[in-house]
Write the C-alpha cells for this entry.
Amino acid sequence: MKVWISLIVIYLSFFIWYTDLGGKLTDDEIEYYANKFESNALKDGRVLEPRIKELLQKFMEEDSGKQFIMVNVIDMSENPTFPDGTVAEESSDVLMNEYMEHMYGELLKRASHPVYFGNAVNGSMDLVGIENAEVWERAILVRYKSRRSFLEIVTHPDMNSKHKYKIAALEKTIAFPVESQLYLGDPRLLLGFILLIVGLLLKPITRR
C-alpha cells in the first residue's frame, strides 16, 4: 500500500504542475494581456496591426483552458537582418539560439516545452492557395500548458529585446495553435503507464 501511495503522490504532483487548473481566461486577464501587448509594442516603437489585435483578442476570448500545441514551420534566412535593417554578423542558427535561450527557461518554468523537432527532407509536396511556400527547412511543435502560460511568456518584459533575434533569423515562417484531439505522447499518460508498471513490478517484492 505504501508503494502505491508513493506512486500516486508522485503522479498527482506532476499532474498538478503540468496541468493548468485555473480554467479559462477571465475578462480581467484578457483585458490585462490586451493592454500588455499594446504597452510592449509602444516600448518597442511599434504599433500593433489591427489584424494582429483581432487575432489575439479572439485567441483569448475563445480560451478553453486546455493545453495547446503551436505548430511552427520555418525557413531560415541566409542573410539575417534585424527589423531595423541592420545586417547581422552572426548566422541564423546563432541568432535563433540566442532567442531560444530565453524561451527555454520561460517555457520550462510553465510546464511548456518542445514536443517535436525535425529537418525537412524535401520541398513542399502539396501546395494549394499559397505562394512562396515551396521551401521549408524545419518543423517544430511546442506544447503550451495553456493559453494563459503562452500569454505570460510572450508578454514577458525580456521578450521585446529577444524577439528581434528570431525575426532576423527567419526568411519566412508560419505558426498557428492547435488543440490536440489525440495526443498519445502526453507525458501525463506516459508517466501514468510507467508508474503503473513500476507498482506492479514492486508488488511481489513488497509482499515478501
